[in-house]
Amino acid sequence: MAEKFLEIPWIPAAVAALYLLKKKKTAGEIIENIVKLVIGWYLILLGAGLSLNVLGGLEEKLVLSLGIHGGVINTEIFGSWLLMECRNAGFTAFLIAFLVNLLLAKWTRRGYLFLTGHHLLFLSLMSLSLIRVFLGEMSVGAVLLAGTAAGIYAYISVRISAAAIKPFHSASPVSLANSAAGAALLGAGIGKLCSRGKMSERFDKKGKNTGHITSMGVLTVFCIAFILTFLQGFPELAEMQECLVEAFLYGAALTAIMQGLRMFLGLFIQMFWDLGKEMIPGLVVGLDSTAVISWSPGAWHAGFLAAALTGVVTVSGLVFLKVPFVPLPGFTSLYFAGGVAGVFGNVQGEKRGAILAGAASGIAVILLLSLFMSLNEGMGLYGASLGETEYGILGLILTALLRLFN
Question: What residue ranges do the domains of the chain occupy?
Fold first, then answer.
């Protein structure tokens, strides 16, 4: 009975209830919001279980066909697996990460606040899972350490990104709070290098946000499953149908996870925003990567295409070398990392800067995640991988520190 109680989201529900009571909401509104939160929690876990079954089969095909371990790069999928393992402890680490970020922003009088909830959640879950691997157990100390590490990194990430974002928002205090801040800085650096000498014109600066593209994730899994099946022998009709079913199930899992994240995190993001406004006079809001698309959609797509190309080439090299873990090119993650790098590379480096920045980000994402997952034996989970630059950077920093002190 105690184990079952620990599995239900009682800590998130209690935190949400306290926040709503402070906002003087009615009993009906409190119940409605908590029910929505709990449904979101179980939608994430439902998608996690479904995707684990689908990608487990993909991992088998990878081992049989190429003799290596690996997984599709998708932060939402892998993050949902980590939540399924960590449950309330993972949420607690997430809450501690925000509070650490908030206190750092207040004490340093630099109001950099990471307000992109799902990435802060996944950074916290990754930190907790990694620390638990080294400590061998899920303890209060592990939760505190994971939350503190993620919170410090979140603050530093937003603070450093503020310099790169000034050309776009020189008048308003904003920064980046996403999983591709490293790609943005890489893009800005490459853009500066490309600004020397005669350059071509920049990509366009106007456009609309395109939102998250679940279909690209489905296409990724279908193509990889089909290729791996083909490598085992020319696929029969039944095998092709199996690949198609796997892709659709993956799409259903990803849709459930994305909807669950919106329902689960919506209230907490609002709570974080309210606390930030109350406690920090000069609040510098971190933007998600989707806000960057409209600044230069042409540069975004050029960066993505370049990242996709170099990502595939880099993966091919890792397969040839038979490294312990090969992150398969999840084009959804490369869409965001490459797109962000392209936009920032376009500022000073124009078209050449956007393309080269996107190309560099594709290589960086694959190599960072391959090294991180290889050093930690896939964190015990195969078939998927975290995505974008921040998970590789923070993951490697934590790995080095844990190995140093363990």
Answer: 2-405
